[in-house]
Amino acid sequence: MLIYVLCIILFAIGLYGIVVKKNLVKIIISFGILDYSVNLFFILLGYKRDGIAPIMMKGQDKAQFVAQAVDPLPQALVLTSIVIGLGITILMVAIAIRLYDKYGTFDVMKMRKLKG
Amino acid sequence: MNKPGMTLIVKTIVRISTSLILLYGVYIVAYGQLTPGGGFPGGVIIGAAFILLCLAFGKEVALKKMSTASASILDSAGALIFLGVALLGYIWGTFFLNFFPNKGIPFHLWTAGIIPLCNIGIGLKVSVCLFGAFIALVLFRVAKKEN
Amino acid sequence: MLLIILLIFMIAGAIIALETKNLLSAVIAVGAVGAGVSICFLMLGAPDIAITQMAVETLSLVILIRATISRDLTHVTAQKEVGGLIAIGVFMAIFVLFSTFALMEIPSFGKPLMTVSSHYVQNGLAQTGASNIVSAIILDYRGYDTLGEATILFVAVAGAIVLLRKKGRKKVGEKDE
């Protein structure tokens, strides 16, 4: 149970960074931390004690494999989620560079003061 | 010393290691149904090899290896392979049907019906997409600085 | 036990990444967090995810450094807004409340439910012929997910290229319509 609590603390750190920080690069980093914590939580939910990876080896006993393999479904969902996270990072970096060209700063407060 | 790119040491190391990285990426894509791996990690590794070329030698060399036109064609080809395999299942019934009647011998390379074909399509798509995004982030910046 | 040490290391890395003044150090610290996540995946029996996480982590680190380097490290306004602090306090309180409720419901660590997945694990090799069950789920049982993921990646990259291109952008002196 402690490990779930630590994972939720990591999530809260990411949430805090998104709301409080004023620098665009820090906000992108906070999104990344949020992404990691959610992915890790999914994999933690599917772990079986003394489990093995859900990949069958040659000559392995099937009954033992079924009894020991960890949950493969969260792994399949997280695998797509990681690549989507990379796409989100690329898009946010592009928007940040575009805003830097327009305003000359990464600071969110100064962007709000300059109109047009 | 006004050539683009990094120093001689970096260039020599990159020249040796890029082919090895590409080989590792192709292995991960091809053996995706047997060992850990598949289209996504293999595609990311292949894209990272081209990004390494672009960082070490400058963007001209990387664009000579893969121009933007061929990148766009390969990207569409990867997506169309994946979608075409998915649509072929309609001939026998449903979308994404694993339509090969004989799945092959387990633990050999060409098994598992449509899964290797889909892996190849996704690997092409992901690698070229990431390379294109990195080129967009680097190339357009440099073009703007010259004005 | 080792997992708890790794998670504490990752929390420390995340706090350093958010609180340091230097942007380059912040990016490198978040790289350390990503490497820790990758080692966690390897210990939890998910080698597929570990490979993907390591490759994606390296790539996003390169992209973030490319974005932050050669730009002046702007001085961020130090003033804290009282309204923002109150908002984050209320937000955190609600979040902690609901996550406590959720933690009472979910199964304890090491004992997953595996209602659908047991079917996949038992019949995956016979039905698809792939010995990697994760690959069988991604591309055979749940192909729609992968199709949507490819679409999202395409849209993200197309959006980045459209945002950054020079053609079609307004000149400096040009007026708004």
From TrEMBL, chain A:
<feature type="transmembrane region" description="Helical">
    <location>
        <begin position="27"/>
        <end position="47"/>
    </location>
</feature>
<comment type="similarity">
    <text>Belongs to the CPA3 antiporters (TC 2.A.63) subunit C family.</text>
</comment>
<protein>
    <submittedName>
        <fullName>Cation:proton antiporter</fullName>
    </submittedName>
</protein>
<keyword id="KW-0812">Transmembrane</keyword>
<keyword id="KW-0472">Membrane</keyword>
<feature type="transmembrane region" description="Helical">
    <location>
        <begin position="76"/>
        <end position="100"/>
    </location>
</feature>
<keyword id="KW-1003">Cell membrane</keyword>
<keyword id="KW-1133">Transmembrane helix</keyword>
<dbReference type="InterPro" id="IPR050601">
    <property type="entry name" value="CPA3_antiporter_subunitC"/>
</dbReference>
<dbReference type="Pfam" id="PF00420">
    <property type="entry name" value="Oxidored_q2"/>
</dbReference>
<dbReference type="GO" id="GO:0005886">
    <property type="term" value="C:plasma membrane"/>
</dbReference>
<dbReference type="InterPro" id="IPR039428">
    <property type="entry name" value="NUOK/Mnh_C1-like"/>
</dbReference>
UniProtKB/TrEMBL annotation, chain B:
<dbReference type="InterPro" id="IPR007182">
    <property type="entry name" value="MnhB"/>
</dbReference>
<feature type="transmembrane region" description="Helical">
    <location>
        <begin position="79"/>
        <end position="100"/>
    </location>
</feature>
<feature type="transmembrane region" description="Helical">
    <location>
        <begin position="12"/>
        <end position="34"/>
    </location>
</feature>
<keyword id="KW-1133">Transmembrane helix</keyword>
<keyword id="KW-1003">Cell membrane</keyword>
<dbReference type="InterPro" id="IPR050622">
    <property type="entry name" value="CPA3_antiporter_subunitB"/>
</dbReference>
<keyword id="KW-0472">Membrane</keyword>
<dbReference type="Pfam" id="PF04039">
    <property type="entry name" value="MnhB"/>
</dbReference>
<feature type="transmembrane region" description="Helical">
    <location>
        <begin position="40"/>
        <end position="58"/>
    </location>
</feature>
<keyword id="KW-0812">Transmembrane</keyword>
<feature type="domain" description="Na+/H+ antiporter MnhB subunit-related protein">
    <location>
        <begin position="9"/>
        <end position="128"/>
    </location>
</feature>
<feature type="transmembrane region" description="Helical">
    <location>
        <begin position="120"/>
        <end position="140"/>
    </location>
</feature>
<protein>
    <recommendedName>
        <fullName>Na+/H+ antiporter MnhB subunit-related protein domain-containing protein</fullName>
    </recommendedName>
</protein>
<dbReference type="GO" id="GO:0005886">
    <property type="term" value="C:plasma membrane"/>
</dbReference>
<comment type="similarity">
    <text>Belongs to the CPA3 antiporters (TC 2.A.63) subunit B family.</text>
</comment>
